[in-house]
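User: For my dataset I need records formatted as: sequence, then structure tokens, nothing else. Please produce one.
Assistant:
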Amino acid sequence: HPLIATWAAAVPPASTDGATTALRHAEYFAGWLEALARDAAQDARGLTDALALEFANAERAWDTALRHERADWLAAMRPALVRYTELQGRWRDACTMLGAALACDAAMRALPALRLELLLNLSTLHYRLGDPHQCEALARAALVPARSAGVPAKLIGALNNIGLALLNRGEAGQALPFFSEAAERARDCGERR
């Protein structure tokens, strides 16, 4: 298999230590998934085809990155894994993986921006799974860091998810201020949707 051949060529021959091999594997997959997500911006078929074959390896790399608290590798792998699991309807798999990362305090301290991404991804996934309470709780947890991050799309995402969760529970009056602020922020950024 071409991926295995590429990875094996990068591993020094003297490296027979299982932990070293697992780390090299995770590092390789972090780079591969990052490139895959970048390429998928134009066409997601390559991402879905590749990960359909390599998802078990990606999960193993994710777990290794978690065990070794490598927030940088988690951040590199997250976009491709989220996109793939969303496209394939594997929302529970994504919740398990992203939830474990969010629970890794050392990784979240090492890369606070990753925490915001995970909160927003998990909020959206819980909405899709029909869990508006968890969707709202995660989006509310993302609201303060989203406001301070200075990235309007993150704030808009958190506000919209809170509004969607409230609306889904039949609380339209409470949802309206969140939707209104999200729309105002979007207009400020030049969005016309």
